[in-house]
């Protein structure tokens, strides 16, 4: 540390002045950093190892091949990119994929205590005097060569079942929305951990230096449980690995366009000087966040051209819009986001995360499910078809799922045409498609009440371990040391679900 | 040991690991003092040497006695033990001689300080060797070098080709014992006179008789010791070491009960429950993941650099695997001419056997360019979509014997391409959306080549 300062002093009179003006905070920062200077040195080098860091050279030089200092991937990856269609709120498995014909005869009967087995319920239905069984009023049919059961609420998705791998025995630890989503995305119910996209960005770097490695798209006008940007946050990982949210409307990414009356002609020059200043600061303080900040300025600079390019859907032919459904012409809808996701994936963005809110059917379950399906069914199916015919399902993983499932018993009043369903963490359905997962396959099984998993349960950590595996990463070895402990996405758990891999 | 040794002797004996640190530290420090005196040529550094040496000798003698008491427990024997035993005594004796020299006992017939210095050097060397053998006894011979950067990588143990052919004892049970038990139960350090180093010794058992009763895990001492209450002093492995996991215990029980503790039986020869099979699979898979990274021929860094400078995106498919996933982004083509593309594609030649995935989509790749990627025999996935390619160009494809998937969407190919692709031995996925190929062409092809492995994706 001292040596650095000496160099600064001899070279730069202005800084010499500033350096002398220590206040208490600076003094403390300096003395503690002084001890950790060596540790920081190695840290900074690690930061540079990853592709997404700018190199300041002209952009025909791809920085994505700098030897990965984490030794990743551990083995050959099957997946190169992923699109995660997050259905926020907890979609009801019984109205969509988990067909339970025996329930028809049990309409209104009380859920046998042996099935619930003393499970603690949410405050919303724990006080109910009875737990009347509510069979789905939406019918199911079998589709494709795989003969998968899909409800009539998903007519478009039923056309692509032979490309899907259903996981019917999903299980989570959390029973309420925020902890459950946070758990799904970060491997911990408490906030503060990096989300999956941030982990992959940190570990594997970028495949396209002009766009962020991790992008999130949230359907507009989302009702129901709120979503927070920490769900695509970097946690304790360096800041440049956080997901960048693309919005609908004039500015897909905030603060990217030039202010009024400024055409940006000298921005490059301005950034070069800013980088010099930041580098001086970095040499002096060694704060890795300075690297992150510089990387993000550069990224923003490149995004000024790359983002308008990729968010412009005007080149897409009419039949594409027809395929994704009428909503796809309305920016910010789930359908438009699906189309945008395809474009981002084509540009080799590694992790595209969509969020669609509104699957929280405590009341009016059949109607609510149908309404959500109307918004999401066609675009989801279209995205899968579109990726497939472009050959992209070879190495693109599609994931569909929410944070938990719903109860077989009705929350509130059960009538022949209407019922509600409460949160249910012990069984729900997700599906995947593409890179390295078996197409036309169903894994796991629930009991007749879709309440307990009776065959091949898949815990959230197992799912996360499998996702990492598909990217060539051994989830037990991919760690980040923070506050004296090595953290990993799957905490101390997780088994790769080998049976669903090709 | 034939007669029983009193507990008190072993109790005192177990202070040996504590006491040995005294002579180690003190005698090394004596060596350091002598070195300092030699280097600085100042006699004053030798003033405390006799005292230091004497303290060293006394503590070494203590360590020897206590060590001998420990050895009476019978847990230690073998070659390394003998070496440690005799080197320990030698160290003490030589250190004592060094002490006598330092106080001038032999002044009358030994002149000069050279013999004295030699004796101190000898002490340090003997001390180091004794310490090393002692360490090997406690921690095992390979403890020191197991993680050394220059040591040879783990010897490949004969790994079974598949689960069915693996030998239950050798491939399932032995690794557990090696991992959890063998550090104390092996030749050289037979705690309780039990060695688990090989099958014969394990079956022979320890001082209380056999530890394994074939067909009856409940009566087997080995299983009893690892399953009793953790707080029990008979629980194994002892406190401070990692206990066996439930899966490992299940495997041991399976070996004793179902396999009847056989040394030769393979998995296919015995009845394996689904649960046990799951555990075995998981353990094998874990080894697969860590060890079986496919690697390619060594590449020249300069070749890779040339590609990067030419604008290629290069991803290594597995760290240090020398197998690459390569694509050429459109922005790398500055002029956009056919010649520029040819020049860039030629750069791939030196690493042609290291490329597993290649993406050349939307670059105006024409039939003439195919010649540059013709001999990529390791290539598994090829993306040529959105290029003005025709069937003629693909007819010249040869040697891509490992190709599994080819993306031709948005090209000018026609249905004739199928007969060309059908001859490629590994090819399975063909993408032909947005070309001259029609659904009836695919149906026609499928009709004529009923057992063709090709999955042709048009638009579903």
Could you characterize what this model shows?
- The complex is a heterodimer of chains A (502) and B (460).
- Chain A is an alpha/beta fold and 502 residues long.
- Chain A folds into two domains: 2-48, no CATH class; 81-500, Alkaline Phosphatase, subunit A (3-Layer(aba) Sandwich).
- Helix content of chain A is 33%, strand content 16%.
- Chain A has helices spanning 2-11, 13-20, 24-48, 113-116, 177-186, 196-204, 267-285, 288-311, 318-324, 334-346, 365-389, 460-470, and strands spanning 81-87, 140-143, 148-151, 164-171, 214-218, 244-246, 351-356, 396-401, 405-411, 420-424, 428-434, 441-443, 445-446, 453-455, 458-459, 480-482, 485-487.
- In chain A, strands 1, 4, 5, 6, 7, 8, 11, 12 and 15 form a nine-stranded mixed β-sheet that branches. In chain A, strands 2-3 form a two-stranded antiparallel sheet. A two-stranded antiparallel sheet of chain A has the order 9-10.
- With 460 residues, chain B is of the alpha/beta class.
- Chain B folds into three domains: 7-139; 168-291, no CATH class; 301-457, Ribonuclease Inhibitor (Leucine-rich repeat, LRR (right-handed beta-alpha superhelix)), CATH 3.80.10.10.
- In chain B, helix 1 (7-13) packs across helix 4 (49-71), helix 3 packs antiparallel against helix 4 and helix 3 packs antiparallel against helix 6.
- Chain B is elongated.
- In chain B, 34% of the residues are buried.
- Chains A and B meet through helix 11 of A and helix 11, helix 12 and strand 3 of B.
- Chain A: Pfam families: DUF1501.
- Chain A: It comes from Galbibacter orientalis DSM 19592.
- Chain A: InterPro entries: Alkaline_phosphatase_core_sf (IPR017850), DUF1501 (IPR010869).
- Chain A: This is Arylsulfatase A family protein.
């Amino acid at each position: 540390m001292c040596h650095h300062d000496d160099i600064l002093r001899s070279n730069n009179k202005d800084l010499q002045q500033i350096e002398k003006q220590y206040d208490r905070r600076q003094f403390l920062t300096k003395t503690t950093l002084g001890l950790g200077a060596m540790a920081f040195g190695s840290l900074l080098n690690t930061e540079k190892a990853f592709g997404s860091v700018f190199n300041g050279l002209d952009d025909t030089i791809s920085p994505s091949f700098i030897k990965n200092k984490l030794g990743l991937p551990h083995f050959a990856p099957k997946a190169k990119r992923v699109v995660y269609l997050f259905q926020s709120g907890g979609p009801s498995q019984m109205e969509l994929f988990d067909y339970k014909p025996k329930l028809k005869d049990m309409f209104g009967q009380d859920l046998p205590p042996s099935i619930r087995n003393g499970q603690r319920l949410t405050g919303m239905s724990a006080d109910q005097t009875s737990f009347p069984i509510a069979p789905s009023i939406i019918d199911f049919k079998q589709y494709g060569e795989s003969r998968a059961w899909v409800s009539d609420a998903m007519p478009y998705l039923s056309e692509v079942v032979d490309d899907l791998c259903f996981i019917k025995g999903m299980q989570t630890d959390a029973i309420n929305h925020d902890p459950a989503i946070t758990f799904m995305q970060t491997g911990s119910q408490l906030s503060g951990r990096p989300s999956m996209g941030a982990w992959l960005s940190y570990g594997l770097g970028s495949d396209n230096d002009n766009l962020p490695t991790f992008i999130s798209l949230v359907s507009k006008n989302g009702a129901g449980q709120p979503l927070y940007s920490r769900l695509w946050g970097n946690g304790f990982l360096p800041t440049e690995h956080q997901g960048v949210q693309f919005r609908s409307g004039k500015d897909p990414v905030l603060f990217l366009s030039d202010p009024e009356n400024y055409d940006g002609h000298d921005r490059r020059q301005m950034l070069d000087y800013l980088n010099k200043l930041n580098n001086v600061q970095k040499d002096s303080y060694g704060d890795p966040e300075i690297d992150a900040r510089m990387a993000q300025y550069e990224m923003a600079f490149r995004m000024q051209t790359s983002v308008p390019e990729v968010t412009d859907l005007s080149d897409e032919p009419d039949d594409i819009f027809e395929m994704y459904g009428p909503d796809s012409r309305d920016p910010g809808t789930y359908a438009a986001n699906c189309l945008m996701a395809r474009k981002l994936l084509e540009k080799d963005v590694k992790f595209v995360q969509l969020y669609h809110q509104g699957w929280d059917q405590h009341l009016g379950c059949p109607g609510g499910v149908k309404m959500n399906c109307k918004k999401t069914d066609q675009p989801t199916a279209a995205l899968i078809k579109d990726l497939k015919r472009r050959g992209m399902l070879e190495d693109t993983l599609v994931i569909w799922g929410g944070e938990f499932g719903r109860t077989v018993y009705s929350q509130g009043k059960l009538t022949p045409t209407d019922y509600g369903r409460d949160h249910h963490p012990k069984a729900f359905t997700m599906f995947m498609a593409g890179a390295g997962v078996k197409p036309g396959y169903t894994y796991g099984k629930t009991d007749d009440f879709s309440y307990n998993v009776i065959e091949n349960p898949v815990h959230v950590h197992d799912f996360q371990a499998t996702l990492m595996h598909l990217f060539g990463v051994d989830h037990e070895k991919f760690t980040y040391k923070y506050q004296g402990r090595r953290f990993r996405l799957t905490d101390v758990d997780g088994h790769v679900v080998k049976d669903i891999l090709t | 040991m034939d007669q029983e040794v009193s507990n008190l002797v072993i109790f005192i004996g177990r202070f040996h690991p504590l006491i040995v640190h005294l002579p180690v530290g003190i005698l090394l420090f004596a060596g350091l003092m002598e070195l300092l005196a030699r280097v600085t040529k100042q006699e004053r550094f030798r003033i405390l040497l006799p005292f230091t040496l004497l303290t060293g000798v006394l503590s070494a003698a203590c360590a020897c006695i206590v060590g001998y008491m420990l050895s009476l427990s019978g847990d230690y024997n073998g070659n390394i033990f003998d070496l440690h035993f005799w080197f320990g005594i030698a160290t003490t004796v030589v250190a004592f001689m060094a002490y006598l020299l330092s106080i001038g006992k032999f002044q009358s017939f030994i002149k000069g300080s050279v013999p004295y210095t030699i004796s101190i050097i000898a002490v340090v060397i003997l001390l180091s060797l004794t310490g090393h053998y002692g360490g090997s006894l406690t921690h095992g011979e390979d403890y020191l070098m197991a993680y050394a950067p220059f040591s040879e990588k783990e010897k490949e143990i004969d790994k079974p080709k598949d689960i069915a052919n693996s030998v239950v004892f050798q491939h399932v049970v032995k690794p557990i014992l090696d991992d959890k038990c063998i550090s104390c139960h092996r030749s050289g350090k037979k705690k309780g006179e039990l060695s688990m180093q090989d099958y014969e010794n394990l079956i022979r058992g320890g001082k209380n008789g056999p530890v394994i009763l074939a067909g009856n895990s409940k009566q087997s001492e080995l299983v009893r010791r690892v399953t009793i209450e953790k707080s029990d002093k008979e629980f194994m492995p002892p406190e401070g070491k990692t206990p066996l996991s439930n899966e490992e215990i299940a495997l041991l029980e399976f070996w004793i009960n179902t396999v009847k503790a056989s040394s030769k039986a393979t998995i296919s020869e015995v009845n394996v429950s689904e649960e046990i099979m799951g555990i075995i699979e998981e353990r094998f898979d874990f080894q697969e993941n860590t060890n079986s990274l496919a690697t390619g021929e060594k590449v020249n860094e300069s070749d890779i650099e040339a590609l990067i400078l030419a604008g290629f995106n290069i991803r290594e498919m597995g760290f240090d695997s020398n197998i690459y996933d390569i694509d050429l982004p459109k922005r790398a083509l500055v002029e956009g001419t056919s010649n520029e593309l040819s020049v860039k594609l030629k750069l791939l030649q030196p690493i042609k056997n290291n490329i597993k995935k290649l993406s050349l989509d939307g670059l105006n790749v024409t039939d003439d360019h195919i010649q540059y990627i013709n001999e990529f025999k390791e290539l598994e996935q090829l993306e040529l979509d959105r290029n003005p390619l025709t069937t003629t160009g693909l007819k010249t494809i040869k040697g891509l014997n490992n190709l599994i998937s080819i993306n031709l969407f948005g090209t000018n190919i026609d249905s004739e391409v199928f007969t060309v692709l059908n001859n490629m031995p590994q090819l399975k996925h063909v993408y032909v959306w947005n070309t001259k190929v029609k659904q009836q062409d695919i149906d026609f092809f499928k009709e004529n080549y009923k057992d063709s492995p090709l999955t042709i994706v048009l638009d579903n």
